[in-house]
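notes to self, project folder thing:

trying the whole complex as one job this time. last attempt i did each chain seperately and stitching them together was a nightmare. four parts in total, labels are on each line so i dont mix them up again. if this works i'll redo the older ones the same way
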Amino acid sequence: MFAAERKRIIKKYLLENSKAEVVKISDILDVSEVTVRRDFEKLEHEGFLIRTHGGAILHDPHEKTYYAEQDMEADENNQEIVETAAALVKDEDIIMLTGGHINQLLARKLSERQGLTILTNDLVAALNASAGGMNRVICLGGEIEQDNFSVSGSITLRNMQKYHVNRVFVEVDGISENLDLSVSSQQKSELIESAVQSSDHVTLLCNYELIGKRAFLSLGPITMMNSVITNPQLADEYKIAIYNKNVILYTSINAFEGNV
Amino acid sequence: MFAAERKRIIKKYLLENSKAEVVKISDILDVSEVTVRRDFEKLEHEGFLIRTHGGAILHDPHEKTYYAEQDMEADENNQEIVETAAALVKDEDIIMLTGGHINQLLARKLSERQGLTILTNDLVAALNASAGGMNRVICLGGEIEQDNFSVSGSITLRNMQKYHVNRVFVEVDGISENLDLSVSSQQKSELIESAVQSSDHVTLLCNYELIGKRAFLSLGPITMMNSVITNPQLADEYKIAIYNKNVILYTSINAFEGNV
DNA sequence: TTCTTTTTCTTTCAGCAGCAAACATTTCCC
DNA sequence: GGGAAATGTTTGCTGCTGAAAGAAAAAGAA
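result (full assembly):
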């Protein structure tokens, strides 16, 4: 029997029973248990099933996991960026945080400080920032985007226009190889544009792994940023490219700076 | 049965019941209690639940961060009020929730519904309401009050004035013995006044233990409400007094109604 | 309150089943 | 036939589970 045939049978079995025991499948297919395990391994890799002691169960993509298998490494990289960003914030600064995971972490970090004014459209960031009780936190109003806990839309933009800030920390959803920024929705794009206009200095927060990925909506070239904070792992070619575009680059620990 | 299967069943059970007892799960899964505890331990590690003495409760990633431990009895009373309030909300309603703990619980309850438009100045309520992804949730903007996760101030009021809603659920900080309402801050008072003006129907959510307490700032008589939802334990004298003031009274299970 | 009882939890141990790794064998294809 | 890929076998090890005993927490009694 061919491997592909076994796979097909296993899939069929799983779809019917939603679970499969190694012993049972080994019996049905008349192959050794090792082979079944190896098949399971491949199918797990394909995302079809989840292996478990004794067998496997059907993979349910909609299953609620919360932050079960959070990527610890990405998290550490983000934390690195947060530390650098926080160091750039001066006491009594008025800053804006656009929505995103790194900004949520930054907000939490800044909640330890005092005397800051923090403006944001991300509800989680707003709550994080207000935790310490020593800063002034302003949350923009508007309709909540379903997947990312931030508000957006015309109300948000109108709210935003009333403010002027010293510095805005921006997160995007993709950065192409020639350093063009992109985001996943029209609303996000509009908000970032508005925030950029309302700020003296614009800083991009970006995990180095984001580079090379493209999101749905093009936002503009990286030169719309005054500075970028990313991880040291960023490939040298990008470091040089950013430097040549006169954007300040902070790679977490050691800064590799161009002109302002 | 595989460990992964048990995990999945426990997850499902928790999502449906919000809490799970060791004994009960041990019974359902037909495994020893030790095994259930070990499963709980793993799921706790994954951030899915929080273990308690005797069982576990669902870990709500947002709620948990912003709440201290709650008084269980008060919580049950509040839940009673929430059930009644939720029953009053019709599909496609446009409702406003002012800040407060009961409204945060109500928001979570309503997140199971769909087609609602929910307006609120409480960030936790906003996040709770948007959890299901099937409702339109609008969060008012403004400055965050340090102690209660809601926004207020002139921006909030200006935001609020743009909207008109079918029903507003109001929470206050105190109700005197002659049924005058009071709150703890000027901002809160202004927001409630504004919300009352923007709504067809005003409902007060109030734990029966609140009566007799007075907060800093007087808001007005209970007649500014169209209806009140509280617990059955409310003393009869108050029930009669509310009835005589022509305010509809819902005492959770059985409604004791006056005229509109 | 303080003490006692009961329930629940943690830890340890033992038995078993399942597993990975290395190596052996078979099959397939050139 | 020779090499590569797939499959099978053996071995020692790990992980899962439940029982039991002691620790801790909650509930009840004085």
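what i see at first glance: The interface with chain A takes residues 2-5, 8, 11, 15, 46-48, 59, 61-62, 65-66, 123-124, 126-127, 130, 133, 136-144, 146-147, 149, 151, 155-156, 159, 162 of chain B (CB under 8 Å).
need to look closer tmrw
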